[in-house]
Amino acid sequence: MLRIVTQMIEAEAELRRISERTQAEQHIHREATVREILQSVRRQGDRALLEYTAEFDQVELSPSELRVSGAELEAAYQAVSPQLLTALRLAKERIEAFHRQRVPSSWVMFPAPEIILGKQYRPVDRAGLYIPGGRAAYPSTVLMNAIPAQVAGVPEIVMVTPPGSDGSGGKGVNPAILVAAQEAGIQTIYRVGGAQAIGALAYGTETIPKVDVITGPGNIYVTLAKKQVYGTVGIDSLAGPSEVLIIADESANPIHLAADLLAQAEHDPLAAAILLTPDPKLAQQVQQAVATQVEAHPNRLLVEKSVANYGLIAIVPDLQTAAALSNLFAPEHLELQVADPWALLEPIRHAGAIFFGHHTPEAVGDYLAGPNHTLPTAGAARYASALGVETFLKHSSLIQYGPMALREVAGAIQALTQAEGLPAHGQSVQLRLEEDRS
Amino acid sequence: MLRIVTQMIEAEAELRRISERTQAEQHIHREATVREILQSVRRQGDRALLEYTAEFDQVELSPSELRVSGAELEAAYQAVSPQLLTALRLAKERIEAFHRQRVPSSWVMFPAPEIILGKQYRPVDRAGLYIPGGRAAYPSTVLMNAIPAQVAGVPEIVMVTPPGSDGSGGKGVNPAILVAAQEAGIQTIYRVGGAQAIGALAYGTETIPKVDVITGPGNIYVTLAKKQVYGTVGIDSLAGPSEVLIIADESANPIHLAADLLAQAEHDPLAAAILLTPDPKLAQQVQQAVATQVEAHPNRLLVEKSVANYGLIAIVPDLQTAAALSNLFAPEHLELQVADPWALLEPIRHAGAIFFGHHTPEAVGDYLAGPNHTLPTAGAARYASALGVETFLKHSSLIQYGPMALREVAGAIQALTQAEGLPAHGQSVQLRLEEDRS
């Protein structure tokens, strides 16, 4: 049953409870496990990978089987439907077009005589994508991680994903994932998952090269491993379970709202699906429609669980209050199913992605609208953004001063180096002035 | 003595050793200490802050003394020289002008009928700046952190810095820091440092508000605390000790090179100062000049130590090899003191900031050229960039589809939801099509 709350204080408390459903503090013992796994991979390389794969994935691999072979890559194309291939290509085209917008590029300026300033952007040398196995083995995730790296111009992109995601219980990888990877230009794929895969990408092994940036979602062990290797490599974010918050008024269709809430709930028992509406009648109708649609869902037990634990309808005084509550939650996905959705944008301060109007279910953005579906969760939208081309770029500041330009600022630098007690800093400027005088 | 190596294999090994001088693995026991401090601050708020300040800083504060008073802020202006105030204002002007360049702004596009896509940029609600005490209490650091936050439009910026940085041994804060903060528009300053200050900013206490992003350098406890709270808040980076790598040819002045190397070495016993040159004569002259300048340095013992441990001159076959070695090290600061420095930019792939030519000592960029002096260290330039306005901005993806646009992609979405086993995702699209038909 999807609960309805009507008091603002209760709504706030519920939103806070849902937002804090996965606090890092619960994972201290897992952190120690992850640290041990990372250290083993760092010290023992492939050997540790094979041992952990046998232990955690119940799959025995030889070192040469770590990398997915060319024959498997080719065979994957035979295993997917023409419809899926067409869909992947459409998705790739739209995602790539969006990510090619506003890519930052290098620049210089000449603010005064003898002075050049600027920034030079470069891609990282090597990126590693983590693609989960099991229930979350999604080809769309491959596209959403690989395409920004390609658009950034990363010369070498590798992918890791656990064995067994083809459902064989063996070594195989879901063919849809292998096809998505190849469509996105990735040929180097290793069948290894979990914290051990993150360790391999961060430190390198005999088979798997060390990368500069690791992106992609995973379970709690993968997330804790990404946090631990952050600083040795760059990472995209610490992804938590998915969530949607919908603001709807009487113009919305309760059947559609229910479907959107369920589309979130079906991801994971920890997924959160929230509706804020000023319309009590709509709230009742959605509650009823959710109950009906849950009954019909092939994965009813999972959906029931997430709806019961992390589903919520809050009846709010007005849309401005809904926006304020949404800012408190800072949702990963925000749907504005109201008569004038663009009027509601102004008060929204934090959201990973915003879906406008009655014909933009989140699924459009999940798959192919173009913007990235890797978004900040658990309130991280307060300070973080979608994965993007920038995740795979970095810049160097460029600075040139000439002798006269240096002389003009020498006094100011001297005053600052004295205040900071750094005499050699001052000397590095003063010695250059003396030479100019001679 | 600044060592000279001539074999490439030795140079590479030395650069790797210097790069790895501060590996996170050395800090496992400190991580536990930091975790305990963060938990205490989270649970006990101000009380924990005051206890840790008494323990670590030997300063007894009452809760009302945590915040630097208006009277102290005013008095700070009397304690700094007119030269320093002028210098801070010049630095502020140039840093602000540079950071106002290429600030990302919101946009939408209309790629096809009924489709709107875009990004909306917003500043974070609240930023917290950490400014170290002791030897590293630098007013320039205040400007470099505060100005990007101001340019981003962050409505509330607070600063934390340990008591005692005025050298009184008491509660006072270095007046140059208080003046720099006010010049940059910050009035809310708390006298607390260390991991406990990071905890206060991440979780909030009775006195100190919870922020969304924490930036600024600190000692190893501050850095470990930033890593642990990352995910609860955003952070700028995990700063390590400072470093410079200089590539120079026979056109460079050995006295200037020596001064630049010492300007790095004087920061910290862990600071690294490296020269790569194809000119053996220059190498000898720099070694001699460093010895002479070290003798004259007021902080001779510290400088000797960092030069001996983490200083290096490598004689390389040519400038291209120097660029390759520099990429291996991925230096925070890179000086190109060669006859044609811009010709050497192409092969440089990783560097936090690049200083061109003979009249651009790093000190120019440290203080006032404009680009940020908060830069990636310890090889992080392979994947990370300078602190900037983006550190305080985030964006929401904007997506709107109309009914016909949705219908056109419905088949592709259906194929993808089936491949991913997410039927409610498909339903959320299909149900909307049925309504359109009726």
From TrEMBL, chains A, B:
InterPro entries: Ald_DH/histidinol_DH (IPR016161), Histidinol_DH_CS (IPR001692), Histidinol_DH_monofunct (IPR022695), Hstdl_DH (IPR012131). Gene3D superfamilies: 1.20.5.1300, Nitrogenase molybdenum iron protein domain. Coiled coil: none annotated. Pathway: Amino-acid biosynthesis; L-histidine biosynthesis; L-histidine from 5-phospho-alpha-D-ribose 1-diphosphate: step 9/9. NAD(+) binds at residues 130, 196, 219. The active site is at 332 (proton acceptor), 333 (proton acceptor). Substrate binds at residues 242, 264, 267, 333, 366, 420, 425. Its EC number is 1.1.1.23. Its cofactor is Zn(2+). Keywords: Amino-acid biosynthesis, Histidine biosynthesis, Metal-binding, NAD, Oxidoreductase, Zinc. Pfam families: Histidinol_dh (PF00815). Zn(2+) binds at residues 264, 267, 366, 425. It catalyses: L-histidinol + 2 NAD(+) + H2O = L-histidine + 2 NADH + 3 H(+). Binds 1 zinc ion per subunit. Catalyzes the sequential NAD-dependent oxidations of L-histidinol to L-histidinaldehyde and then to L-histidine. This is Histidinol dehydrogenase. It comes from Thermostichus vulcanus str. 'Rupite'.
